[in-house]
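>> received
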Amino acid sequence: MKHRTAFCAGILALAIAAPTLAAGPRTGATVYYENCTNCHGDDGKGPRTIDFEGPALVGNEFVKGQDDKELAEFLRTGRPADDPANMLRLEMPAFKLMSDADMKLLVQYVHKLAESN
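>> returned
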């Protein structure tokens, strides 16, 4: 009985700590996955569903032409579907409430995608 109680206590401790242990530090990929994959795809090469049709970010010239500050501002502002610069005529949502730390991670990750092939 003693061993069973100790075993159960150990399992409970792991269950409580597991989300913290598994999560690890936030990364740009994490922020991207949470906010961008529906429209831009898991790998940045385009949408993963037919419901959303954002452009591919891999090799994206618009992203390449933005420095970190400009890209962060674009992501915070978004782009309405009727904006003349919006070639796809699909709304780019604004991420006004994203933390500065997450925005920095996201900008770095999106730039990395744009520079890849």
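>> Residues 18 and 24 are 10 Å apart (CA to CA).
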